[in-house]
Amino acid sequence: MSSVATLPLPAGAGARPRSAASLLPWVVLAVLAAFPLIAPAFGLEYYIGFVRRLLIVMIAATSLNFILGYGGMVALGHAGFVGVGAYTVVAMVEAGVGSAWAAWGMAIVISAVFAAAIGAVSLRARGVYFLMITLAFAQMLYYLAVSLRTYGGDDGYGIYTPLSLGGLDGLHADIFYWVVLALAALVFAFSSRVAVSRFGHALMGIRDNETRMAAMGYPVYRIKLVAFTGAGAVAGLAGALLASHNNFVSPSLMHWTESATLLVMVAIGGMGKRWGGPLGVAIWLTLAEVLKLYTEYWHWPIGLMLILVVFFAPKGVATLFERKEKTQ
Amino acid sequence: MDAIFIFEQLLNGLGYGLMLFLLAAGLTLVFGIMDTMNLAHGSLYMAGAYIAAKVHESSGSFLGAVLVAIVATILIAALIEWLVVRRLYSRDHLAQVLATFGVILIADDLVKAIWGPSPIMAPTPAALTGPVQLLAELPYPAYRLVLLGVGLAVALGLYLLVNHTRMGMLVRAGASNRSMAEFMGVRVGRVFSFVFALGAALAALAGALMGPIGAVQIGMGEAILIPALVVIVIGGIGSVRGAFVAALLVGLVDTAGRAFLPPMLRAVLPPSLAADLGPALAGIAMYVLMAAVLTLKPAGLFPARA
Amino acid sequence: MFKPKHAVLAAVLCSALVAQAADPVKVGIALDISGPFAAAGAEARDGFDLAIETLGGKLGGQPAEFLKTDFAGNPEQANQLVTRYLQRDKIDFFTGPIASNSALAVGPALFAAKVPFISSNPGPSQFAGKQCNPFFFGQYQNDTYDEAAGKFANEKGYKNMVIIAPNYPAGKDHLNGFKRIYSGALKDEIYTKVGQIDYAAEIAQIRAAKPDAVFFFLPGGMGINFIKQYIGGGLKEIPLVAPGFSADQDVIQAVGEPMLGLYNTAHWTHDLPLPANAAFVSAFRKKYDGRYPTVYAAMAYDAIMAMDAAVRDVGGKLDDRAAVAKALAKPSFKSVRGEFSYGANNNPVQNYYLRVVEKDAEGKLTNKLVGTVMEKHQDAYVGECAL
């Protein structure tokens, strides 16, 4: 590796890794898109559902990474918005709505409203206080869902007639997978794009030095609130997709450990790196899935990994790849 | 609802608040002075409870069990500090949260491997099993009175330690400006180790004392960690005085919510709605309190690092 | 004389045997051994393990494979695990979860795949009533324990009671089950926070209400907290009545002396005088350091025994799912609870017993059988089931 790094670079070679890097999302997308077609040949049907779940959680993690990594807002209540999205779908189903698009759209709107309200209060606090106040709101939502008898409370709510995807219904058994993939790709692309936009730069500026940004005339509070609301809305979408994925919603979605897990996944993957969310989710969920197969003591290896990541990859696993790219 | 009933409930709120204070004091001390968020504090609490319960069962001495639990937990804490926490002092809060969350995961599996997944027996000391008659109409659990006493004693002890001893002065010096204190010849590293051990001792004490009135089981640390965090945040992180006030406030609000809210709602709302709403509101009273305090005072009631 | 025809026959026979050997009966077990139900989950695991050992790892004489994976008491993870069992492992039977919410989360997928779900513990009212299914088999319906407790309270002549449960639907279901039979007056109906640690406020309310007795449904750690604080609060004089799982061996060994004299109701107890039960209890105590089994362990054991009998009854032909379900609905094994049959909603018609916590000959605290509270009892939801 080092011998490659020390080679004098021919002119123009510097552009190559960049183009390879910019191709990477497309390659990943193509592989993921082809997966349901290839998987049955190897008897891996189960993993279609598994990957679909990964993709949904990635949407939630990407939205958290946006406010955490670029905005510096350490929120410990993100699962609350996932839950709001999921319960919006439940409410729509209960009200007789059969269209997935309508239910998901409503989930985005409602969770955006919740995020705006919660953000408006929480964003006045900083650091650990912000972390705790977002946790408080998520806990309130959790206890509300537990005692909401209409939607099953702690027993959860089963969706017995899957929501309709409109014209896409019946095209292919795995059509829902591709819909999720398309949405995940959109969220990924959108958040990568916003991160390098004027808004994204302003947000990162606030993360690094809030006072200075305020002095420069940026509406700091409003920018943070917009980011927080957007992230909440996207988390709500993830919740709505999760409701359709499981055809079941329960308050356990909103338990504070779920918020903590999202935070941990983003931190493992790499905060403020566009691959951070997806990588963290893939590592965490795959590890949990595999370890459980072999032992009932499957928590401690994850704990150990967490400590190791904090010590040896403090900026997340995504940066390990980044360094490699730079040395080439 | 007579005066004695209300008085009893206030006493209950006070008792619950002091229990939370025992745990919150150690947490806020470590956070305030070392600027370190140690989630594994809940695991130390669990360790204290397990060790005390086991020693009490085999030796029959409750006092001895509490002391053994404190000493053993300090040793465990020293190991955790040496392996993990020491490397986190200079890192941001998120890194501290993540690594100590990792410690929680490991600790839970470790306890399961040693003592099994079932809750274990933590007997009440024989002399304190029954109630004592506080007033003619008011019997009160003797053991809870002891808890009240210990909680108040710890609060007083910490106040004296931090404000009126040489060690406390060094601690405050190290906290307010580490490099300056070091320059003046204070061995800040040693001071930090002392504070961390003190925090562990308080966690172990809380765990050992909670055993006889609660379930000693895996996850007990996480269950009480959240209310304890709420307490230190309301109080203003790092302020022992703040933690004390906030703990009493949370204890009272939580107890009052459970005791008075449902009957009050039943008086003004239709029964089925009141039955649904009352317990739900009582359950989130603590969080509503925190959100309200932070909305008005974004750094808690007694900001330590103003 | 050797004829080619024989060779063909032999080949066919061999391949049939090979196919059978290569294709064991697959049982998916969702273990609940971390998270909120870890204690009960570990009991269930011990029951499963003992049954598997007793049967020599076979079901109905056929080789069997038992898949065991933890899902941490989380309905979401349970759902995911069942998806894997169905799609990747193609299981023939399912059992395992402790809590009703997990059972409700995994039910629909199992029913759609026509995989029999032999519940080892939860008997949610939904699966006994409107959402009943030919592929669900309960060991007892949740409310029946409370109904038995209500009948006991009537017989004991309790005129005024306070009832208490956590504020979630299962808590309300349990209290409704009690109220369905209990005919005295209710002084108060208290709902507490899920996972509550401190019960001082509620205990003060109970003291102020001065009831004849208290009925509580507080599973797991909540019950342990409550009983310890209740006795510490000097309310020993007001008897506690509980459904069996709030006063089972796992709770007894964690609470100790304060449990003495606590009345509780269940459809099984370790001192039921039946040969099958005696064999189970002694094997269990031998394997697990003299510990008494809980209802969780007993029913986990029974769940495996039910599968064993069903495989035998259908002659190993597990592809005919409807026939397997039919065989399961007519249990032909010797259950540790004694004779029982399934009602129209695949929930049992069976006896319910009164137990009281006492000291055994060795001075160990445990449940003792007092008598039968209800005979051949069927749950209240059977009328809502369209099976």
TrEMBL record, chain A:
Q: Which Pfam families match?
A: BPD_transp_2 (PF02653)
Record's subcellular location? Cell membrane
- Please give, as recorded in its UniProt entry, the membrane topology of this protein: Multi-pass membrane protein
What cellular-component terms does GO give this entry? plasma membrane
Transcription keyword on record: no
Which keywords belong to this entry? Cell membrane, Membrane, Transmembrane, Transmembrane helix
Positions of transmembrane segments: 20-42, 54-81, 101-121, 128-145, 175-200, 221-242, 300-321
Show the CDD domains listed in the entry.
TM_PBP1_LivM_like
An example of a GO molecular function for this protein is: branched-chain amino acid transmembrane transporter activity
Q: What is this protein called?
A: Branched-chain amino acid ABC transporter permease
Q: What's the source species for this entry?
A: Parazoarcus communis SWub3 = DSM 12120
From TrEMBL, chain B:
Q: Which CDD domains does the entry link to?
A: TM_PBP1_LivH_like
* GO cellular component assignments: plasma membrane
TM annotation in the entry? 12-34, 62-85, 97-115, 142-162, 188-209, 215-237, 244-265, 277-296
Q: Which UniProt keywords apply?
A: Amino-acid transport, Cell membrane, Membrane, Transmembrane, Transmembrane helix, Transport
Pfam families the UniProt entry points to = BPD_transp_2 (PF02653)
- Give compartment(s): Cell membrane
Read off the InterPro entries from this record. Answer: ABC_transp_permease (IPR001851), BCAA_transport_permease (IPR052157)
- How does the protein's chain sit in the membrane according to the entry? Multi-pass membrane protein
Q: Enumerate the GO terms in the molecular function aspect.
A: transmembrane transporter activity
Q: Has the keyword Cytoplasm been applied to this entry? A: no
One Gene Ontology term of the biological-process aspect is:
amino acid transport
Keyword Transmembrane helix among UniProt keywords: yes
Query: Which PANTHER family does its entry note?
Result: ABC TRANSPORTER ATP-BINDING PROTEIN, BRANCHED-CHAIN AMINO ACID TRANSPORT SYSTEM PERMEASE PROTEIN LIVH
Q: Which family does it belong to?
A: Belongs to the binding-protein-dependent transport system permease family. LivHM subfamily.
This protein is called what?
Answer: Branched-chain amino acid ABC transporter permease
Q: Which organism is it from?
A: Parazoarcus communis SWub3 = DSM 12120
Organism ancestry: Bacteria, Pseudomonadati, Pseudomonadota, Betaproteobacteria, Rhodocyclales
UniProtKB/TrEMBL annotation, chain C:
User: Is Signal one of the keywords?
Assistant: yes
Q: Which UniProt keywords apply?
A: Signal
Do you know which CDD domains this protein is assigned to? Answer: PBP1_Nba-like
Instruction: Supply the InterPro entries for this chain.
Output: BCAA_transport, Leu-bd, Peripla_BP_I
The positions making up the signal sequence are 1-21
Leucine-binding protein domain residues are 24-360
Q: Tell me the PANTHER family matching this sequence.
A: LEUCINE-SPECIFIC-BINDING PROTEIN, PERIPLASMIC BINDING PROTEIN OF ABC TRANSPORTER FOR NATURAL AMINO ACIDS
The Swiss-Prot or TrEMBL record describes its family as follows: Belongs to the leucine-binding protein family.
Q: What is this protein called?
A: ABC transporter substrate-binding protein
**Gene source species:** Parazoarcus communis SWub3 = DSM 12120
